UniProtKB/TrEMBL annotation, chains A, B:
It comes from the Bacteria. It holds the Pfam family TetR_N. Gene3D superfamilies: Tetracycline Repressor, domain 2. This is TetR/AcrR family transcriptional regulator. Residues 4-64 form the HTH tetR-type domain.
Length: 208, 208
DNA sequence: CAAACTTTCAAACGGTTGTTTAAAATTTAT
DNA sequence: ATAAATTTTAAACAACCGTTTGAAAGTTTG
């Protein structure tokens, strides 16, 4: 085996570039240059660019989704106590720190980009691969918010997802503005801590 | 003058395609084919693709921003009364219906895409061109929410923008699911009516 | 060592992109 | 009507993209 780390080098360079510039704005030539490997090795090891994107996302989903499932199972949310449910999403996110310092941030940005760039392919993949966890998610939210109807919950979860996805996909730009205008270093952790109360309030608001 | 409507035809086709597929995923050939004009006419009338994007956005901003300014000036929000401020954004949005049935939706989606795709160029343009209105926005929100800091407001406004934009951009898909699962016809106006209380609660939540 | 297999590499492929060119067509002005 | 200015057109441009190729290099196996 020659250069056993070629695959890993590609994955790591791709992740960083995908998170920074998006999937479509990142070329295989950028990735292979950054990774110091030959251009053709992406197609040799992954088959195609599409498959590389899936592999990069899969690397995190395989860690994150079981942890999320586990966390969701460990909570028994009180009525209108929505923050524990949201924390079940946040806690395993920062366990990705083990993989790399920027892993939580890169993962969130890529999830956000995956929703707006891949035309729903990511969503379908998650539902097909982690359908049980997706069911558990809606179940826990419905338990915590028994007063609102199923369709109201449907919309609110998508409002919440939208807020998260948008902020993450434009996080680098927003961080720059925040740092320039408010002299505030805006780490992923800080943004997440700010958005949780926001989403909790919105999700559990009284509909009129 | 030969075919006086060439410029307009390009603008309208570009708008529809930008809203549906994003700026970078839409080629000039798609636009000119859809508009039934020659490929080179984009560069002749607009100079470049970048400039075309700006023109498409400008067409709506020139109508929307003065209306927003006017609406914001007409309100005097009470403390923690955030819904009137949100309505000042919503009302002029639906005045864009005069330009075309899908104009409000297209405008929102493009604003959202402009934030995540153009690397902050859109925001800089809005701030430089409509700085007064931007100031008025933060002023009215700050008045309605005197307890939260400027940077906290900055983030919450972007959370709100994200929720709105995400739901609008995926509204067609979400409408299908909603109609299939909950037998609920989901018009843009209905979605807006659902999201306003959500955003109001999130924006005025107690930060911890 | 030699054969079989895996991985790397430079080069080229076909395709798409935004942009430019220069002639043709059309409109406007004298 | 003739000249000037504007607009449209087809064609080509250079640059980039993801992917494929086939030979070279490296590694593992018999």
């Amino acid at each position: 085996m020659a250069k056993t780390d070629t695959k890993l080098r590609i994955l790591e360079s791709a992740e960083q570039l995908f998170a920074t510039h998006g999937f479509t704005h990142t070329s295989l030539r950028q990735i292979t240059t950054e990774a110091n490997v030959n251009l053709a090795s992406v197609n040799y090891h992954f088959g195609s660019k599409k498959s590389l994107i899936q592999s990069v996302l899969k690397r995190y989903l395989e860690i994150y989704m079981p942890l999320l499932h586990q966390n969701l199972n460990q909570i028994a949310p009180q009525k209108n106590e929505i923050e524990p449910v949201l924390q079940a999403f946040i806690k395993p996110l920062f366990e990705l720190n083990k993989l790399g310092k920027q892993s939580p941030r890169n993962f969130m940005i890529m999830i956000g980009r995956g929703y707006s760039e891949t035309q729903g392919h990511l969503r379908k993949y998650i539902v097909s691969e982690y359908g049980e966890t997706v069911l558990l998610i809606t179940h826990k939210f419905a338990n915590a918010l028994p007063n609102i109807s199923a369709q109201e919950l449907f919309w609110r979860l998508h409002f919440a997802l939208g807020a998260l996805v948008f902020v993450m996909s434009s996080s680098s730009a927003l961080e720059e503005i925040a740092e320039a205008d408010y002299a505030e270093s805006a780490t992923t952790e800080k943004i997440v801590n700010k958005i949780v109360p926001f989403l909790a309030a919105g999700l559990s608001c009284k509909s009129q």
